[in-house]
Amino acid sequence: MSYKNYSSQVINHSIRLSLKVSCAEYCMLLHVYDYCDAKKSKYFSYNRVLAHHIKKNLGFTQDEQIKLLRALIDKGFYHRIKIKNRFVRDKKSIFPFEPSKDNFEELWKVSGRVGNKQKALNAYKVTVRHFKHDFLLDRMKAYLEHLDIVKQAQLHLSTWLNNDTKQFLNEYKSKKSKSNDERNFFK
To answer: 83 and 115 share a domain?
Structure first.
């Protein structure tokens, strides 16, 4: 397999191990899953457009892509349908944490309902696949406490949940921790 740095793909190894797939298979699986989600379909065609998209984003050659696709078919993640080069995702979920409308509403309420709700819901659906809802809720509370201390404007929830920037993973100041100005270094 060629491992050129075309773009980054975050590998959640606990999920990967539970699915019993290699790192390359996991990247291919996640990439095709997201590709189908973007098209709002469980069906996909392996064609030049998808092959180029995978090559551009993951760096796998077409031969490597076909090997990975066959391995994922053998493991039951996809199966062929009667149309040439057309596949359907299996009902098997690849994510341990599935989005819940009630959980989103809870996070939306805690966040203060800042920003576009539909964009926030879409960002939540992507992020909650990899991070537990309770973790995101705790991080939002820490973020809001941080904003009270530093006196900054709050990000829209969709921006805060953005999978590219992952603002929710930032370190936030809390009222419990003292700033350097408040510490007495010469006790």
So the answer is: no
